[in-house]
Amino acid sequence: MTTGTTEAVRRRVRVRGTVQGVGFRPYVHRLATGLALSGFVSNTASGVLIEVEGPADGVEGFCGRLAAEPPPLATVTGVDVEQLPATGADDAFTIRSTDRSPGRTQLPPDTATCADCLRELADPADRRHRHPFATCTHCGPRFTIATGMPYDRAATTMSGFPMCPACAREYGDPGDRRFHAQPVACPDCGPRLRLVPAAGTGIRPARDADALTAARALLADGRIVAVKGLGGYHLACDAADTRAVDALRARKARGGKPFAVMCADLDAVRRLATVSEAECVALTGPHRPIVLLRRRTDSGARPLAPGVCPGSPHLGVMLPYTPVHTLLLGLPGDPPGPRTLVMTSGNRSGEPIVTDDDEALTRLAGLADAWLAHDRVVASPCDDSLLRVRPDGTAQVLRRSRGYVPRPLRLPVPVRPALAAGGDLKNALCVGEGDQAWFGPHIGDMGDLATLEAAGRAEAHLRALTGVTPVLVAADRHPGYHSARLANRRAAELGLGRTVFVQHHHAHIASAMAEHGLDATARVIGVAFDGTGYGDDGSVWGGEILLAGYSGYRRFAHLAPAPLPGGDAGVANPCRLALARLWAAGLPWDTDLPSVAACSPGELAVLEQQLRSQVACVPTSSMGRLFDAVSSLAGVCHRAGYEAQAALELEAAAASAQGTDSAPDACGYTFGIVTGPGPLRCDPAPVLRAVVADLRRGTPVPVVAARFHHGVARCVREVCRHARRATGLRTVALTGGVFANALLEQTCAGLLDGDGFTVLRHGEVPPNDGGLALGQLMVAAHEPRDPAHARPTPDSASSDETE
User: Fold this and answer.
1) Rounded to an integer, what distance in angstroms lies between the CA atom of residue 614 and that of residue 433?
2) What pTM does this model have?
3) pLDDT by residue (tens digit) across 134-156?
4) Which of left, alpha, beta for 691 (phi over 0: left; psi -120 to 50: alpha)?
């Protein structure tokens, strides 16, 4: 075809990225039609295929706008253009059916309800008024309903809901925002809500709109309702109702671990917490994670039940991300009801989130008074994501799941097709191939059969969606990890012969390096602080400074070890950890010390005998355990009801001292730096003596806590200076679960930056074990294919190097 004297050209365009299920084809159709071009667009297993013909300037403009102006949820990672002979066709531009040839495309994550769907939800004149499953190409479920690729309705859990004529018209109209929106439905043809009462409650069952009305009334009446969301069930109750919150905490056996809450809108959030502009963006964005906010304590704050987040200055808050949530919290004109709900994962403590309706009735029996269920199947569990926003406006994701999974991460070094199993705590697996990696959703702690089965299903689902067939399986080096045994089984099933085992802290550092795009030649000073990691010497590591690259590492420095009495039993009793640290430092157990007073005489006697005989006392260099010990020594927390409780409460105490005389350089405690053969040792004995002296002087506990934090940060800076002098390295990676501590991370980063270091901090990849699998993937990718050939070393001068 020609226009005037302009000769027609034809191009074949292949678009890669997140370009399916996001309205990309109708966008292409509108763009081509507006430029009077002919041709077609089609989904393929590799992305989107376009052939376009018309005047050269129109075709060139079309190709340039594909990546520059994509639809809101699309992410274009590549546009390949190939010249074709012009055919002279002048027919209309069309949308063709999916090409099912082999390949790989990217599926978008589940996305919060868009503004257009919310308007329809609240509009009495709209046919989707109060429809609990309103969605379009700009919002709604994707990952949690997809069963395969390419992403078409037949490969989703919506395949069992035939569209009514009205929905079919929208689905087939390129000009409609529901064109090929795979979850499209309406009250006539979509999923159905139902309210199922627990036995003996006297609650009446209900369906559809009546089910929602009844659920709202139950929440207002102080009942606990299991609510089925995108990725599984939540347990919900009125966050202002003390009896309801206490009942939920008791039924779930949650200890003192804080609950997250869901607020109806930003006004409700602002009545509970202070919200910065960056935090507002995180709350209202399409991911809709839980955001950690600073609680308001002034007289204008809306009251919450004390049991929502006991002992914490922070509150985990999210906004509604499905129409069901929006309707539960109420539309304008609805009867009064709770504007803030506790929304905690629908499971018993230590178990995976429940997704199956029949299973929910069994596993949540005794926890919920009623179930607000629906008949759309969840293809993969997906818990809520969690993040905090730093003072500079950057976000640190602490749990990467709904809203982020399965969004790919760009890798700086191509990898063979691989599966990484992650760790046993905060488990999230990862697959990778070429220059991309995909995390699976947060699974949790691998402590029982149900969680292991959930991990296996998550792996199968992720592999089905990404098309990765591993030729390599990686896992943590700990011989007792369930995740490692799972990796061994998978390697055997795939006929791969062996699993590549990766040292825990090396994986943490490699994860930070990969997130920041460091290439295969890069080396860093890796500061890996956490609670537990299997060390090369068989002890428990966790306060490590490694000189590391992807291909190897050297232990440059570490926290001086102390006994860990009783293993997990010791971790649950910070007072015992404090006494073990005092014992290792040669300090007496004087009865005026809070951690000594917290133990009974019998407990003290048993512990003393245990430490003297070294029975069940594995040595540990864990920084996480040192935080626990100081928390008890300062009188903050002696018995931990949930993971990291003592350290979190110590951080909260330290944060409350900001603006006092606890300036970092002037008042931080000083660690001893012990040199000699082998790695440097950071000796906390001087710190412990200073803590004891401060307590006896009557120094306020928040100041003691702040001085400890600043002392750790100063120790990090000092060791990094030693490493720079020894190696010339100037890049420091801060990683491991201890760096979820905002005060410590910020103080370390500030001191290191002021000292001329380049500091790598985690963003979208969690610093804790939730990000471990990415590091395992990167380290395993550098495993030599021929074991007879040694790998490059991070520091050839070292004799203490691990390959």
Assistant:
1) 46
2) 0.91
3) 999 999 999 999 998 878 899 99
4) alpha
